[in-house]
Fold these 3 entries.
Entry 1:
Amino acid sequence: MKNLYVTLVALLVTLGATAQVDTIRNNTGGNATWTSGTAYYLDGYVFVEDGDTLTIEAGTVIRGLQNPTSGSQQGNDTTVDDASALIVARGGYIIAEGTAANPIIFTSDKDADLNSITDVTPFEQNLWGGIIVLGSAGTNTDPIEQQIEGIPSFETRAVYGGTQNDDNSGILKYISIRHGGSLLGQDNEINGLTLGGVGSGTLIDFVEVFSNQDDGFEWFGGTVNNYHLISAFCGDDAYDWDQGFRGKGQFWFAIQRVDAGGEGGEFDGGTSPEDGTPFATPQIVNATFIGRGPDKGNRTLRIRDNSGGFFHNNIFADFGRGVEIEIRDGATEFTVKRAREGQLAFKNNIFWNVNATGTSDDAFIGAAVNFKTRVNGVDVPAQIADSTAAVAEAKAVGDSIYAAGNNAYANPNFVSVDSVSRLPDANQSLDPRSFAGIATTDLDAGVYDSTFFTAVGYKGAFDTNGSNYWLTDWTALDLYGFLSPTTVANDNRIDFELNAFPNPTNGLVKVTANNLKAANVTVIAYDATGRRIVLKEVPTIAGTLNAEVDFTAQAPGMYYITLEQDGILGTMKVEVE
């Protein structure tokens, strides 16, 4: 069932009715429940404080003020907050559990009508802050308690870190976080979702960060596990970890604009000290990362500051440089050493177009740090021979990782991913699923022995046969029209394209599809709330469908037409004027 992300609030606004409005300042006021029938506005930093629980119903919309009016207390002075953000303090608890049909949406107050794609255009950023969750799980940083970035240092509720690695901060499920990342100063923005010292008792599943000014997701230490994450069109890195993050992740997706974005992943091990333990050793399985293109300079992944990690059955495509691993002069612990000691590994991944040469030679690159001296205050390459040798050594280690892990440099055959699909006109041409072949062979099956990971028969974040295509329905990617309506069939070919015209319409819509089986097709039409308004069986003639759906009696708005044949679904939006 499709859903246009229209909550009751947006529907009431569209129809001219008056919805309840609640502006939240400073904190949630103890235990609180936010309901889908109320329009919520965050005015400045809003905390779920230690001991409090915030419950957010499915379908609720929360908007952050672009220009907050409330402030934080410093001594006897109150200063206006720089941004609006929701912060779950250490000891606080959030239960925000949406559904695919009724996601929980965080966006800007500028985004007044969620049924509109023009009041906030797709790539607008920096319109509010983001979501920050803080817990008591461990980091590898001294002191053990840290202040989260993006929040003033005097704010005592912004502390994270501790010794409870199984700490539970709550549930975030089917959450879409849009147009945030307030720029507070040089190198000081708020990420879409920031997780500081969050423990493994917390559930993070089906979370999208769309068009954020800074990183999509960033972990500061902690052990939280993460399913089904989307980082789309963010201004900096898609994913970022630091301070000894040790969680697991499966089904991650990253897509960058052709004209903006940092690394696919910036993965740091430690900050102060860099050789702090425990080392950062997350496991990332079944991810699909798509970059800005091989003619751009951004790295596929940048692994540094003594980070390790384990990467299995992933797809990395369209980056300007490969995976960079770091070696440091004068350090006893660094990323290359993590690789030598088996704490950094890449197994059964696909790389494609991750460098300008178009070959596997540069799937990994080395980086040398601190191989310099200063003469009269100026950096000079006095140890250039050592630096060159260090880069070569780091690259050799990367090449050995690539060879030992049965990785492949091969075309993953995405259904439809090109530069057009990442430009503002959003022409429904993005489909990051892979055809069969390389994406379903040479899997690292052993990684699925872990009870956390779901065993699947493909590489990347999406099933090659069209099932488990979890990008649709609840995401801004779908709302703004980036996703292709094309369905991938079980025989791993594009089985049919669904067309509906005229669109927009004020009456009859002709529905056509080709290359179907010579059998009946179920044609279903839904309104924006998911209510079925048409259901009929239509025969095909020589595998071609010609049908009509009558919207004459329907009110203006957005509707959906879905075809079903042998479990294969194709869906298209139709606007009724």
Note: The chain is about 5% helix and 40% strand.
Entry 2:
Amino acid sequence: MEYTVSSTNSENQFRAFAPSRRRVKNAQSSGQRAWVQVLALPIAAMLVAGIVFGLQSYNIGFWSPGHGWTSVHGLALMSHVSPENGMVGYTQAFQLDDGSIAYHYFDRYPPFFTGFMSLFMGITDDMPLEIMIFRHIMNVIYLLMMVVTYFLVRLWIDNRWLAFAITVLSFSPFYMLLYKDMIHYDQPALLMMLLLVYTIARYKLGDWKVWTVYAAAVGAVSMGRGYSSFFVLGLWFAIETVLLLIGRGDTQSADSENTAQNLPNRFRAIFRQPSLWVSVVAVVWAASWLGYNMFTEARVRDMPISDTSIVNSALRRLPFVGYNAGVHEKPHSSDKGLAGWAYFAEVQTERQALWFVPARFAGEMFWRFDVLNDPVEINWPRLLTGIGLYVAAGVFIARSRPGLRIPAALLAFGGLFWLFFMINLTTKHIYVTMYGVGLTIVAYMAILGWLQRFPRMVYGLVVVSIALFALGNWQSRAYMLDEIERATEYTLDFNRIQHAIEGEDNAIYLDFFYSQPECIIDNHICFAPGYYLRNNFLTVYEDQRDYVLSPRPFYAVPRFAEPGETVQLVQKPSHPENRVVYLMDPKTSVEREMPAEPEPMFRYGEAITLQSWTLDGSVTLNACDRVFIESWWLADGAIDLNYNMQVVMVDASGGEVTDANAPLSRTPTQLWDPNLFAVDVRPLTVPCDTPPGEYPLIMGVYDPESLAPLAVTDSAGNGVGNQIYLTTLFVQ
């Protein structure tokens, strides 16, 4: 039998089994869309990371607001980690008058984060680069917080793009971004707190075993200021205990109609809860490290544990033994601004709103002083927004599915409970409000969760969230650059100073008479020397000095000189190009003999006389060159104010080109001893864009508060105005 197949049928059969061009094209498009869907979210995450690193303010200075002094405090601790002190850092080492060493402020946290950060100390001898390495490590920690938050949000939000947008919005507020690269212990603690909540949630859902919760709890209390995670664990235990006692816990008896019969069983069930034993393990682990730190400090400082800085800090900071408990009458200088629980509740609610609104739209707010001296000024929009966050979080928790209600409560309120418990610390330090980010996350889920039903709107929200995140980063960068110009000069100066100091373990005398002896920057906490001069000892005893560190480009012994006395004057800093802090070697001093009989050249006001002056250098110089003006002064009576002296370089029309403006001499004029000579040496740098020509130098003395200049009379008693002509500089 023969079979014949028509050409028409054959073509139809082929068409039935072979894919059409349209089908091939559709299949290819589907594959491309699948790849786009897979890669789109990682690309968006990389964009967020690029914004963080690309808009980083490359600041290398430390200034007095929280970000600056807190960073230098952390660096000081990290720079003094060594096997000799048990890997427990301290901030400063002072050499005392008998040659012994006094150590200040030991680390009170487990050494893991400090030890990790110390690994990066000394990998470069360029201090600005070293600081930026640390700032970028903190940026990485910030991004890891966002990653953990994304996975947390995904437990409640099915739409991954909505979860991404909520995460980005939660980390977009100006103050969150302002403190993201602060080099300290709070960001790693917050990262681990978020990871702990995520682990508890996965355990409550039945996805993970209980050992993962133990591991997460131990890790959380071990990292940075990880003691804050006690309040996540404590809240978890408290919630589950209450649920057990009211008959709604996971382990309640099936025949619970008779509450009285089941109540003993419920009490016994409390001791079978994982939340209890996880908390116990975490507390014991953390207490062991705290005890180790205290023992190490007591051993190194040779003192009882009760006298250690760790114990003293606890006595100031814990709420029931510190200042808000009324135990101490006079607050420590770092604990001013204590206001009581109700006042702090209002402040913290406003701060929470500030940490919720993206970018800088909620305005500014810094910590407040004593309520008795600084009355409460309520910002009602911000306060009501903060209250709204609490309400939104409460509603969200109540509506969460059973396995996620407790994790939602831990996320929203665990960090906030720590802020209230540590009121003696957190009243002042606004940066710790970052521990309330969990409330922000829950509030955003409550407010934006409904968008899951509208995918296209979610994509628009993603774009808006990234734009707000970029705006917040830009605003924080601009703020940093405006605030830290002078603080950056300190780091640049010390970068040169570190290379000028020969060897290690030198005693560096701090000649900073105008502030606390250990302060060398505009910084009320004064931890800067511990980091900047970490391989050397500091001292406030002149006879111990190997080097002298001063805010002036000179150093004179004695501070005041009698007529006919010889003065040892060091006026050649190791780096004359420094601007705000100078290192000098006393071995390079020169002698200056005071005249036996004072002969004033000019009198400023009623009691200040200029005895002599000289220019250290040629009057002929180039643009960018620097000269030093040395002058000797005398008080022939009491001086009523602390005066500044200014040397001004002027052009042919009398306009100011540059000046050298600072307090007169190294001792405030109100403290001058009558009939004793005082010296002043100050640098004057010719601006690099100065055109060739002749530039007179004039000198004046004035009150820095009112800016009123002192009238000048010459040696004959004739008035000459309020300034004198010194000499003329010839710029080539």
Note: The mean pLDDT is 86.
Entry 3:
Amino acid sequence: MRYAEDVAADQKQFEIQLGHMCNNRCSFCVSGQRTGMGEARPLSAEPILTRIEEARAAGHRRVTLLGGEPTLQPAFLQVLRRCAELGFEEVVVFTNGVKTAREAFIDEALATGAPISWRISIQGATEQAHEGTTNKRGSWRRIVQTLRHLHARDQRITVNMCMVSSNLASVPAFAELLLPFGVHQLHLDTMRPMDAGIRSEEELAAITPRLADYAAPLEAMARAFDARAPGFDLNVGNVPYCVAPSLLHRIHHDGEHTETVAVDDADTLSQPWNKYLVKRRDKTHPNECEGCLMRDRCSGVFDSYVARWGSAELRAIDEATLRKLDPDERLWVVHRRAILRALRQASSPALRIKTAERGEREGQVVAEWGDASVRLRFAAEGTWRYEGFALSLVERTGSAPALADLGEALGEVFAKLGQPIAPLGADLALEGGSVERRLQRLRGHAPFGALQWSGVQATDAGVSLQLETEGGSTACVFVEERGGKALGRYELGKATEGCKPALRDGLSALLGSFRAPRTPT
């Protein structure tokens, strides 16, 4: 049994299906269908515990228990106790809220010592919508009782819903339903046809919303949460961005690397598989997606949807649309993807550069030079500033000379991507000390009139700053440590006729900033 070895331990997600048995009959789910057909069977504890133990040994810190309905499995409480013994940091119980409507059952689960958080499957924000989707009378009352019991015990609650035709129109009512119970997050996802069981084409067409039907109820729901609880964690999964563009920042496709152990048709546990890689198998990007700036973040639309209704509802998001939807550039990487591409192209045998455009390390750059390595994060603001972007340090390793060389090499690359304001250079090797503190002050005050700060190089006692005016006048400012103190001095280079006032005023501003309080970047 193999688990991913190239994923950081704190990013590993693991989920295991405890069986198909379920006490609801949701219109979109294979588990309820198999249970209704008498095909779902309880699983013994041994194979479940073995998979969980293997996952913990592979470095997983969090586990999600899935169904069907996991609380129906005879081994459920035994699994919780073993998760506690293994030291999992979080055990997510993904439940439909039927058994948890009994306070005594919740208390039994908590008594296992497992660090539980509860993910409640609510299939509609109203009684009519929920029971019309679960096809189970009384399931709404049990959901409300579950929320009440968990809230009374100060439990962490998140909520999931699968959007189908019977519940989509109800979603604006979620804010009124969930906020009184202290719910932390609401996630709505699209129905995956391959997970719906054996359904006829007519049945699938009846339960699948048209893409054009998503925007209005989702936007109304977002307005309701914004009015009552600004900042509430509301997110929508796998809806094409162009379908509800006003929700650009709330739509997500895929997620953290997740390894799933599922139950097959013979009620046997599978080998672990990459959840989001598998979930893309039956999706496509039609011709309408060509040129869309969000394409790399979007998993597309289901093949079966395109076969049934076509793809004319899709619209590529261009630069003008993106600027209108995201004026604050919260999707920095999308706006600046050209910079990341240029960085990768600047990689060479001596300077090795990798960039990340998706995932947990989105907008980060890893660069290596000899034994030196640095991880930087792109942002709107940061330590090192250029026209249009900034950079901050995440981590660095290596000797000081190699880091200084790496900083100078990267500084030359970044200067080609944006006008330097407070550029990166040999100061990458500095870590604290009086010279670094002086440079921090200079970075906060840059730019210095018409004097451009073009680079930073190493000296025997500190660093030198290269400066120049648009007309070609140059100067060099030295920041060096003498007797435990950082001292500054400058040397003039070329002094082009007509540029002397700009050079003089710029140097005066720079030297004055040594004494002035630092301006926040």
Note: The two ends are 49 Å apart (CA to CA).
